[in-house]
């Protein structure tokens, strides 16, 4: 197993200007990346496809054994927050290099969400274990301690089953197979509980859209949860039967089903595009007109990272990862962090992340299936920040 070591800047004979040394070292790194990502040095595209396949091997990607196993992964406050369900901890990993900054006991497997004030962790047993879950834990990122606990019970005292937690500027919600509960963080209790009937099956996924939860049922109906304690099921089904909602990309809902990624317009319930990728799709990130997803495809030497055009679903680039069993992904400090179920953390460095996104955006901008070279590259083309979170301390 390769473990990244701190890079050593070369000592250049006859050069005493440290800034010159740094510039030459940076130039060497950029040259390496350009060689790796140079279209002429990559495998040929598949007929009719604009996808460029990259090989991100052991020598380019730092890999850390940071836990016994990894479950949920989230980025926030400039760091990576990861659940190690085997020991019942949430790990706070330094966003600069992956060092464990804190180990916070949470008692088992949790789903994670991060907002401007807190890290939220809800205890759950997975989709197949229908025992009551909870509590919902609020972790203070200043002290790295559990600051409060919210019991997950109905007004009548019945315990709830939780699948996930959503957090954003509009509030905090916990969702399960037949409900979405809005949390009052100040009071430490459930403020509103919206129930979903049996007619359309269980909820198979939920995301925040327009500051409020939006969920999908087993038969493909979208369920909206305005801030009045009610639930509203769309009268016509969207093409989401059996799909799991993953993310929001502008006006599009992104979902995964049977190894395909698909986009739906929630205002019309219309399918916008569907793209087969592999046999499994994990986490999905969206920003800057791109969609990133990780997962597995048959015949690969490891799991794969894909970059798609959010508008058309076209695969713009993909990279083979040197690991199997990826379980989560987030973007922090302009790096991609990909975790595995075996407790390994793969870090795609900033320069490679920028190059990968730039390559994808170059193919997206081109009008003839190739990179747009009619204009010089601008800073925004190389900027992965729509996908990232930065450190709170700057």
Task: Explain what this protein looks like in three dimensions.
Among the domains are: 109-237, 7 Propeller (Methylamine Dehydrogenase, Chain H); 249-394, Lipocalin, CATH 2.40.128.630. The chain starts with 17 loop residues before the first helix and ends in a 29-residue tail after the last helix. The chain has helices spanning 18-37, 350-365; strands at residues 52-55, 63-65, 73-76, 79-84, 89-93, 100-105, 110-114, 119-123, 136-140, 145-150, 164-168, 171-176, 179-184, 189-195, 203-209, 212-217, 222-224, 232-233, 244-249, 252-257, 260-265, 270-276, 280-287, 290-296, 304-309, 315-320, 326-332, 335-340, 344-348. The protein is built from two helices and 29 strands. Helix 1 packs across helix 2 (350-365). The model is unreliable at 1-52 and 367-386 (pLDDT under 50). The protein is globular. It is mostly beta strands. The chain has a five-stranded mixed sheet with strand order 1-26-25-24-23, covered by helices on one side. Strands 2-29-28-27 form a four-stranded antiparallel sheet, covered by helices on one side. Strands 3-4-5-6 form a four-stranded antiparallel sheet, with no helix packed on it.
Q: Count the strands?
A: 29
CATH 2nd-level architecture of the domain at 249-394: Beta Barrel
Q: Taking Cα atoms only, what radius of gyration do you get, to the nearest Å? A: 22 Å
Class based on secondary structure composition and strand pairing: mainly beta
Q: For the terminal residues, how far apart are their CA atoms?
A: 33 Å
Q: Stretches where pLDDT falls below 50 for ≥5 residues?
A: 1-52, 367-386
The number of helical segments is 2
Arrangement of strands in the largest sheet? 1-26-25-24-23
Percentage of residues in DSSP E strands: 35-45%
Largest sheet: 5 strands, mixed
Helix content: under 10%
CATH class of the domain at 249-394: Mainly Beta
Net shape: globular
